Amino acid sequence: MECNEQLNRSIRWADAVVIVFSITDCKSYELINHLHQHVRHLHPDNRVPIVIVANKADLLHLKQVEPQHGLQLANMLGCTFYEVSVSENYIDVCNAFQVLCKEISKHQTTSTPEKRKNSLIPRPKSPNMQDLKRRFKQVLSAKVRTATSV
Predict the structure, then answer these.
(1) What single string gives the DSSP state of each residue in 57-106?
(2) How far is the C-alpha of 105 from the C-alpha of 128, rounded, in Å?
(3) Quick one: residue 100, left, alpha or beta (phi over 0 = left, psi -120 to 50 = alpha)?
(4) Separation in Å, CA 141 to CA 71, 130, 134, 146
(5) Distance of alpha carbon 96 from its chain centroid, rounded?
(6) Tens digit of pLDDT for each residue in 104-135?
(7) Using an 8 Å Cβ cutoff, are 54 and 67 in contact?
(8) Lateral strand order in the sheet of 17-22
(9) 21 Cβ neighbours under 8 A, 6+ residues apart
């Protein structure tokens, strides 16, 4: 129950949601609809953009979910869809987040500032956020160095 409440708090303060499933894991794909409904239950005004990401696109030999199924589900749910391989092409991941940031910006400019201030829920503090940012930058810079050295 505590984990569920923590998830609810995280979703309530979110400006956007990324739902990721693995093309090599059918069960992760089957959870998308449930997670989408949960987010929409906590944000009934539809102002929180949701992106669905199919990961591990490089592992075609282990594929359990066809990419077009993810696209069809995303279209049915009104979400943007990306198929990525984090290990082979981090640029697709960056593009997905850039589009998501533009969506957030668009939604925030259409909402009134007063309403936005009143609806803010305190964000949970994460002691590891600085560490996560640092590690993310390290991974991206390592990928850039490898890509430019080829």
Answers:
(1) TT-GGG--S-HHHHHHHHHHHT-EEEE--TTT-HHHHHHHHHHHHHHHHH
(2) 26
(3) alpha
(4) 30, 17, 11, 9
(5) 8
(6) 887 776 554 444 444 555 555 555 566 666 66
(7) yes
(8) 17-22, 50-55, 80-83
(9) 28, 29, 31, 32, 52, 53, 54, 55, 65, 70
CA atoms of 37 and 42, how far apart (whole Å): 9
Residues in the chain: 150
State the amino acid at position 71 in one-letter form.
L
Considering Cα of 34, then 48, then 67, then 64, what sign does the dihedral take? negative
* Residue 29 clears pLDDT 90, i.e. is over it: yes
Tens digits of per-residue pLDDT, 45-80? 877 888 999 988 888 889 899 878 989 999 999 888
Strand partners, 21: 54
- pLDDT at site 112: 46
Residue pair 50/11 in contact (Cβ under 8 Å)? The answer is no
